Here is the input.
Amino acid sequence: LPDRRVVAAPFAPSVVVDHRVDVTITEATRQTDGTVLVEARFALMGPKGETLVQQRSSHRAKVAVAGSGGAVTGANEALAGLSRDIADALRALPPPAQEKPDGSVR
Here is the structure.
């Protein structure tokens, strides 16, 4: 999302955010077939904390190299899939309302 400003939590109370992303990784393990599975839930929250989107995400990556290095590479690939799911969900949201200097919304 190159057109968006991203801030990492925790952030100062003075920072206004349009959307917050809450992610829970429910599984990140190497499977018996040699793949790495990453399963997660994520929610996109609005500026007042309201839930706008809730989704589950599951990505499996083949491991090309045996050992822990291959597992890490596979986990990175699966996490990249989760990141794409979150980015797609953010792109699907309507643009946030912008407040004018007089306090009204455009």
User: Anything to note?
Assistant: The longest strand covers residues 20-30.
